[in-house]
Each structure stands twice: as C-alpha cells, then as structure tokens.
Model the fold of this input.
Amino acid sequence: MRFEIMRLDDVDGSAVDSTVVDAASVKRIVQQAAAIGQRLYIRPAGTPAS
Done:
C-alpha cells in the first residue's frame, strides 16, 4: 500500500509539499517529523486511473 504524506505549514496549516511513499517508509518519515516538530497529513494514495 502507498501513502501520500503532505508536510504542513506551521503558520496556516496549508500543504507545503507532498510525496507518495510505500508503507515501510511511513514510520521513518513520521519519526523524523516528530523529532523536529513537523506537522504531517497522511492519507492512502489514490490508484492511478487507467
């Protein structure tokens, strides 16, 4: 399963950037964000339309 992770702006909460990663990478990214106090929004990535 893949997830979209959006880094959120500290001031207004808007998405600054986003990336799509596999499930194994989510834990590492969340730990890094927690260490520096970064806000994230995580949701399942949509499947591409065929």
Remarks:
- The mean pLDDT is 91.
- The two ends are 18 Å apart (CA to CA).
- Strands lie at 2-8, 15-22, 40-44.
